């Protein structure tokens, strides 16, 4: 605790404009509406402020937890005895030609609506996902055949260093500048990053715990009316199939590996087949509408949700031999 007090003191002195809260209830920041307090929560407003914040964290040897809109996050009932950095105020959003540049805290719904208004196509799938740009890059979020990596152009990050990745053919290339010998103008060079390929709900950023501060999206020109119509169609499909009336974190489990002949396997179908639809522990329930979702029917605790997760995993493993894996990320658990 002493280290956190020290960190707080330095942050108040060295980052005077920084929004810093103590004992912030995480249930206010997660779509499950579950979670005890974070000892400290910072909400930087600019990448510069985020940089100062991270420098102090590095000097104090404190590793922060980064979060966006908390729509894929389950936080312990005891909370988190550390620093949470929330990106929600990193909300820059700009268009340049066929590109959109967005701060990591921009909501995907806002990003997709902005793209539609500007007549830029490629983000229609993202409109109904309640996460942020940073969360979508980290998770390689996707829906209805679309995925973050398909439209990513670049990602700015903070880690042990500060830098930028270009995304080409689904792989990350570290972008670095060298002055040209001829005229001194900076040339941008790229070096492929090892193990950089994005995969299903997984990115390089998960492995390296890098902080995504901004991303660029490469889109194609389209008719705003047609783009909005496609978004409305996908939103209607979501409403019809998903239990959006209850707090949740979306799909609880990852899609399992396909069968050897390539046939896809869906977690929701397995859970349903094993008779888990409607199964409840305390306030947590396997949705009766969509077995892939665990919902908070009211007053659910993290302990309820985790106990239900374990029961579902056990039944599915016993009956089908498939080991389900959590898609939802956990904190303090
Ligand atoms: C009703 C509902 C429907 C959903 N539908 C879909 C869907 O169709 N497809 C889909 O893919 N997901 C879906 N989700 C899950 C979720 O919205 C996505 O995973 C989303 O990308 C998470 O973004 P977030 O900002 O909320 O991230 P958070 O939940 O805040 O964080 C998730 C993870 O990302 C990390 N993270 C967040 N921001 C950053 C950052 N800037 N830098 C580094 N790490 C970061 C966190 O540390 C954490 O590990 C759904 C969720 C709900 C509640």
Can you walk through the features of this model?
It is a single chain. With 333 residues, this protein is an alpha+beta fold. The chain folds into 3 domains: 2-86, Uridine Diphospho-n-acetylenolpyruvylglucosamine Reductase, domain 2, CATH 3.30.43; 93-225, 2-Layer Sandwich (Uridine Diphospho-n-acetylenolpyruvylglucosamine Reductase, domain 3), CATH 3.30.465; 245-331, UDP-N-acetylenolpyruvoylglucosamine reductase, C-terminal domain (Uridine Diphospho-n-acetylenolpyruvylglucosamine Reductase, domain 1). It has 9 helices and 21 strands. It has a 7-stranded antiparallel sheet with strand order 6-7-15-11-12-13-14. Strands 1-2-5-3 form a 4-stranded mixed sheet, covered by helices on one side. It has a 4-stranded antiparallel sheet with strand order 17-20-19-18. Strand 19 (284-286) and strand 20 form a beta hairpin. Helix 1 packs antiparallel against helix 2. It starts with a helix and ends with a strand. 40% of the residues are buried. Bound molecules: flavin-adenine dinucleotide. Flavin-adenine dinucleotide binds next to strand 3, helix 4, strand 9, strand 15 and strand 17.
Characteristics of this structure?
Uridine Diphospho-n-acetylenolpyruvylglucosamine Reductase, domain 3; four-stranded mixed β-sheet; about 325 residues; single chain; Uridine Diphospho-n-acetylenolpyruvylglucosamine Reductase, domain 1; 21 strands; alpha+beta; binds flavin-adenine dinucleotide; 3 domains; 9 helices; seven-stranded antiparallel β-sheet
CATH topology of the largest domain: Uridine Diphospho-n-acetylenolpyruvylglucosamine Reductase, domain 3
Unreliable runs: none
Per CATH, the class of the largest domain reads Alpha Beta
> Which CATH architecture of the largest domain is right?
2-Layer Sandwich
Strand portion, in percent? Answer: 25-35%
Shape, principal axes of CA atoms: globular
Q: Could you tell me the mean pLDDT?
A: 95
Query: How many separate domains make up the residues?
Result: 3
User: What ligands are attached or bound here?
Assistant: flavin-adenine dinucleotide
Strand order across the biggest sheet?
Answer: 6-7-15-11-12-13-14
Helix percentage range = 25-40%
CA-atom Rg in angstroms: 21 Å
> What does the largest sheet look like?
7 strands, antiparallel
Tally of contiguous helical segments: 9
**Total beta strands:** 21
Our measurement of the CA-to-CA distance between the termini, rounded to an integer number of angstroms, reads 18 Å
Q: Give the class from helix and strand content and strand pairing.
A: alpha+beta
Order of helices and strands: HEEHEEEEEHEHEEHEEEEHEEHEHEEEHE
């Amino acid at each position: 605790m002493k280290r956190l007090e020290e960190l707080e003191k330095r942050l108040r002195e060295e980052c005077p404009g920084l929004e810093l809260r103590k004992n912030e209830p995480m249930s206010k920041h997660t779509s499950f509406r579950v979670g005890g307090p974070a000892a400290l929560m910072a909400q930087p407003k600019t990448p510069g402020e985020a940089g100062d914040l991270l420098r102090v964290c590095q000097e104090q040897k404190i590793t922060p937890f980064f979060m966006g809109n908390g729509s894929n996050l389950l936080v312990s009932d005891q909370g988190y005895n550390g620093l949470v950095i929330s990106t929600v105020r990193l909300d820059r959003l700009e268009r340049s030609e066929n590109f959109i540049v967005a701060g990591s805290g921009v909501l995907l719904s806002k990003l997709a609506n902005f793209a539609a208004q500007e007549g830029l196509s490629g983000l229609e799938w993202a409109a109904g996902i309640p996460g942020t740009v940073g969360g979508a890059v980290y998770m390689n979020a996707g829906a209805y055949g679309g995925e973050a990596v398909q439209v990513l152009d670049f990602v700015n990050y903070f880690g042990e260093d500060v830098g930028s990745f270009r995304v080409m053919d689904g792989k990350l290339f570290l972008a670095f500048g060298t002055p040209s010998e001829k005229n001194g103008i900076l040339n941008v060079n790229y070096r492929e990053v090892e193990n950089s390929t994005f995969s299903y709900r997984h990115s390089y950023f998960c492995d390296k715990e890098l902080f995504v501060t901004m991303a660029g999206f490469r889109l194609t020109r389209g008719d705003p009316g047609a783009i909005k119509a496609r978004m409305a169609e996908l939103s209607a499909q979501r409403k019809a199939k998903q239990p959006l009336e209850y707090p949740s974190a979306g799909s609880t489990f990852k899609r399992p590996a396909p069968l050897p002949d390539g046939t896809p396997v869906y977690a929701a179908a397995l859970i349903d087949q094993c008779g888990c639809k409607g199964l409840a522990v305390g306030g947590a329930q396997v949705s009766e509408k969509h077995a892939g979702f665990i919902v908070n029917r009211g007053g659910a605790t993290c302990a309820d949700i985790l106990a239900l997760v374990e029961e579902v995993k056990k039944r599915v493993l016993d009956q089908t031999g498939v080991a389900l894996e959590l898609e939802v990320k956990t904190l303090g658990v």
